[in-house]
Amino acid sequence: MVVQRSVRLLLAAVVGVLCVSYAMADEGMWTFDNPPRKQLKELYGFEPTKEWLDHVRLSSVRFNDGGSGAFVSADGLVITNHHVARGQLQKMSSQQKNYVADGFYARTYAEELKSSDLELNVLVGMQDVTARVIAAMKPGMSTKEAVAARKAVMAAISKESKEKTGLRADVVSLYQGGEYWLYTYKQYTDVRLVMAPEEKIAFYGGDADNFTFPRYDLDMAFFRVYENDTPVKVEHFFRWNAAGAADGELVFVSGHPGSTNRLQTYAQTEYQRDVAYPMTLKTLKRRLAVLNAYAVRGAEQARQARGSIFGLENSLKAMTGEFGGLNDRETMAKKAAEEKDFRDRIMANPTWQAQYAWAWDSIGVALERQRAQANTRSFRSVRSRLLSFATTLVQYVEEIKKPNGERLAPYQDANLEGTRFRLFSPAPVYLDLDEEQCIDGLRESLEALGADEPFMKAVLRGKTPEALAKELVRGSKLADPAVRRQMLEGGEKAVRASEDPAIVLARIIEPMNRETRSWEEKNISGLLTRASEKIGEARFVVYGKTAYPDATFTLRLSYGTVKGYPMNGTVAPAKTTLFGLYDRAYSFDLKGAFDLPQRYLDRIGSVDLKTPVNFVSTCDIIGGNSGSPVINAKGEYVGLIFDGNIESLPGRFLYAEKANRAVSVHSAYIIHSLRKLYDAAPLADELEGK
Question: Distance between CA 507 and CA 524 in Å, rounded?
Fold first, then answer.
């Protein structure tokens, strides 16, 4: 591998400290089958028992639309972040009631609001199926044959498990394909909103304070899980500790980090830096400009767009920080040093060299093809929620005819229930907003690909982006879930005969997408997967199972201590208080994102200003961990993860303990706010078991 000259200058210094820093850092998003027992015992004298791990696992919840949470009472009460809940809050809202901005509190079970399409998962089983998956890919298979064999066996494993247990069954790839595990989940789809505060206190400081510390957010929301129209009784939940964790105390995070790229090769990291991130950042800025322009049309347009604006602002700031890490010489030098140590060990052993050295070359070939196709792969799309419904319908009737193992993942037998659940969601579709986003998406694709590009010619059919978007959005009936259900129940005949413009366009696009997927599986993703599996296998041979896999939106355990850090030439404290919240508010004269809900102004004399608000720890987290519980060694709930600091953003590629911090809402603030500010003593009593 060619390493940049500036990076080479740092390699010698870095490689000498790699082993020491990894052994001592509070690093890792560990799977529950392989918890960091050695590190915890050596660093903190703590040895998690099987019973402790099982309790933590079964008390933890995945929000399947992105995020984490936890059971916090025996009556199915779940806590997560306001920003994790905001998608559901938006779907429940209307022009008359804005639950995102104004908040909500149900004083009785009868007042709790049912979510339209929220699925919660609890991990109840884990089984290593690596041998079966690997055995399906016979020696001498072509890349295409290996892709098909892998896909078929994973689908078969999921189907067998689903039929046997009735549980959600996902086969997940860990260690870049070095291991495959069957994860089974208890699914809950009757989930009801209990409480959420106002947006201005949940996201206090707005985008300016996002990914920073000190912070003062009450980023929380409560749901309750039901079965058979009754609150579910759960054996495993986290008991509340209102005192929280002390400075320097060992704490844990049990959540579902979305994705990291720490085990990627150096060449893959370079591709992210040189191609993927610049392209994505440009698109995010463009999409954000469209949403902001739509939002200024009026209060209702602002309400409709606010959720998407929030998400894009969050993504833009996060990816800008990650991109900064990719352009940092020291970060890239550490990545290069890790790979050099790994590859040197492989090359020093003739047997390992023969088995594994080719994998890096294969990844290089795939990346060159990926670079050449980057523009096409990124812009051969049409941005429309109505079209996404249509695409699901067109794919569904085609895929369902195939053998289970040959289908796209959403249409395999084990996943059909979830696909239909999302397709039939009664959540509103904002047609004006969908049209504006569709217009700009088409314009962007046209600028990137040109009018003569085959995809654009097939999509536009001589129309302008404005004309096509209007025809698509205004002519389609798919905003109505009853129409979508009727179409699916009509099967292939109904979908093929439909003159709905969204269905018509999906029928044009899908064959082209199928051809693209087939080519990519053979020439890019198939090569990357086979090579990554070999590198994952080599990692086990060289280092053993002493490392953790990249994040995959599966349950992980992180650990660390409550700890401040050096910042801006001074020191950030481990926690903030209500004193600081009011100081920040009045320092900005209660303007803009630094204003407070009226109740905070009216009741300032009723609150204890010494109450801790937010705190930081060295726990290793990333997007997807939002809403994760922070617990102490006793398994008690002491905090609610909601962010990382700005220094943590390069953590997608490399963990740096010195200033990498997870930011959480303090358990004391949650209880104090419920009792003193929200008149929600019954909810506080339920949390504290009173």
Answer: 25
Mean pLDDT rounded to a whole number for the chain? 94
State yes or no: cis peptide before 410, omega within 30 of 0. no
Residue 178 backbone class (left: φ over 0; alpha: ψ -120 to 50; beta: rest) = alpha
pLDDT at 574: 98
DSSP state for residue 214 in the 8-state scheme = S
Rounded CA-CA distance 483/498 in Å is 11
Q: What is the pLDDT of residue 208?
A: 95
For the chain, count helices (H), then strands (E): 28, 20
Report the alpha-carbon distance of residue 169 to residue 157 in Å, rounded: 8
Count Cβ atoms below 10 Å from residue 564 Cβ, excluding itself.
17
- Angle CA(418)–CA(419)–CA(425) in degrees, nearest 5? 90
Taking only the tens place, the pLDDT of each residue in 18-71 is 333 343 479 999 999 999 999 999 999 999 999 999 999 999 999 999 999 999
Reported as type and span, the H/E element at residue 381 is none
Distance from C-alpha of 675 to C-alpha of 690, rounded to nearest angstrom = 13
2 pLDDT more than 70: no
Handedness of CA 178, 183, 189, 192 (dihedral sign): negative
DSSP string, 306-335: HHHHHHHHHHHHHHHHHHHHHT-HHHHHHH
The neighbouring-strand residues paired with 120 are 63, 188
Phi/psi at 645 (nearest 5 deg)? -80, 170
Three-state DSSP state, 254: strand
Region label for 516, one of left (φ > 0), alpha (ψ between -120 and 50) or beta (otherwise): alpha
Q: What's the angle, vertex CA 555, arms to CA 554 and CA 559, rounded to 5?
A: 130
List beta partners, residue 577: 612
Q: Cα–Cα–Cα angle for 295, 301, 306, nearest 5°?
A: 65
Encode pLDDT of 523-553 as tens digits. 999 999 999 999 999 999 998 888 899 999 9
User: Which tokens go with 548?
Assistant: 């953790």
Report whether 531 contacts 422 (CB < 8 A). Answer: no
DSSP 562: B
3-state secondary structure of 577: strand
How many angstroms separate the CA atoms of 508 and 515, rounded?
12
Sorted by sequence, the CB contacts under 8 Å of residue 496 that are 6+ apart come out as 397, 507
The predicted structure's pLDDT at residue 15: 33
Secondary structure of 327-364 in HEC code, one letter for each residue = CCHHHHHHHHHHHHHHHHHHHCCHHHHHHHCHHHHHHH
pTM above 0.90, yes or no: yes
DSSP conformation letters of 77-112: EEEE-HHHHHHHHHHH--SS--HHHH-EE-SSGGGP
- SS3 assignment, position 669: helix
